[in-house]
Automatic annotation (TrEMBL):
It comes from the Bacteria. This is 1-acyl-sn-glycerol-3-phosphate acyltransferase. Keywords: Acyltransferase, Membrane, Transferase, Transmembrane, Transmembrane helix. The keyword Transferase applies. The lineage of its organism: Bacteria, Bacillati, Actinomycetota, Actinomycetes, Pseudonocardiales. One of its GO terms (molecular function) is 1-acylglycerol-3-phosphate O-acyltransferase activity.
C-alpha cells in the first residue's frame, strides 16, 4: 500500500501543473460569455475524477445524478468522512460552487483553480468569514447557481455522522430552493482523516437522494434534521461504510 500510495500522490503532484494550465486556458476562453464559470467547473470535475478512475484500488459509482439541476439555485448537502469526499463529489458533473475551508485554497495549483472557479473560502470559527460566505451564497443562489456544503462542518473522526450546522438549511429556507441530500459511501476506508496511506480496495459510491422542498418544513431545524436523517439512513443501508 505504501508503494501504491506513493505512486498515486506522485501522479497528482506531477499532473496538477498541466491540468491547471488547461484550467487557465478554459477560463480565458469562456470567461467573456460564461459568467457562472460552468465550463471551468466541468473541466475541474474531469480533472478530479480522472485520479479516481486511474486508481486501481478504487471503484466509483454515482447514482441519482439525473435528479440534480443544470440551472437554478439549489443546496447540495453531503456527509464528510475523508479528504477524498471532495474528489468523488466532482463525479456529479453538475455546475455547483463549493464552500471549503480556507486551507484548501493555499494548495498550489489545486487551490489556485478553486479561486478561478469562484469557490468560497471559509475560515472556521471566524464570524466575519462566515458572514462573507453566506452573503456570497445569497448572490450565487439568486443568480441560479447551486451551492455544495458539508453541513457537519468538518470531517468525521470515525465515520459517524456528526450533528449538522444550520447554514445550508437557512439558505434553503430563505431562498426557497430545493435541498439535495447526498450520501458518500466508502471514502473513509480509502483514506481516514489522519494520514496519506491508501488503506483498502474500496467501492466508493455517491448517492444523490430525492430533493427536499423547503415549503414542506416549518423551520430550519426541521429541514436540517430531516436531511441528516435521510443521509444517515442511506449510510446505514450500505453498512455505514462512509
Amino acid at each position: 500500500m505504501i508503494l501504491v500510495s506513493a505512486i498515486f500522490w506522485s501522479v497528482i503532484v506531477l499532473t496538477c501543473p498541466v491540468f491547471f494550465a488547461g484550467a487557465v486556458l478554459v477560463w480565458l476562453v469562456t470567461a467573456p460569455f460564461d459568467r457562472r464559470r460552468s465550463a471551468l467547473h466541468l473541466y475541474t470535475c474531469a480533472w478530479a475524477v480522472c485520479y479516481v478512475r486511474l486508481n486501481p484500488l478504487w471503484r466509483l459509482r454515482t447514482s441519482g445524478r439525473e435528479l440534480l439541476p443544470w440551472h437554478g439555485g439549489a443546496i447540495l448537502a453531503a456527509n464528510h468522512a475523508s479528504t477524498f469526499d471532495i474528489i468523488v463529489l466532482f463525479d456529479l458533473f453538475r455546475p455547483f460552487k463549493w464552500v471549503s475551508k480556507a486551507e484548501m485554497f493555499r494548495i498550489p495549483f489545486i487551490g489556485w483553480n478553486m479561486r478561478l472557479n469562484g469557490y468560497m473560502s471559509l475560515v472556521r470559527g471566524d464570524r466575519a468569514s462566515v458572514r462573507r460566505v453566506m452573503a456570497r451564497c445569497d448572490e450565487l443562489l439568486d443568480a441560479g447557481s447551486p451551492v455544495m456544503f458539508f453541513p457537519e462542518g468538518r470531517r468525521s473522526e470515525d465515520g459517524t455522522l456528526q450533528p449538522f450546522k444550520d447554514g445550508a438549511f437557512d439558505l434553503a429556507i430563505r431562498h426557497q430552493v430545493p435541498l439535495y441530500p447526498i450520501a458518500v459511501h466508502g471514502t473513509r476506508k480509502a483514506l481516514p482523516k489522519h494520514g496519506f496511506i491508501l488503506r483498502h480496495n474500496v467501492d466508493v459510491r455517491v448517492e444523490v437522494l430525492s430533493p427536499l422542498s423547503p415549503t414542506d418544513f416549518a423551520d430550519v431545524a426541521s429541514l436540517r434534521e430531516e436531511t441528516r436523517r435521510r443521509i444517515a439512513a442511506a449510510l446505514a443501508e450500505n453498512g455505514n461504510a462512509s
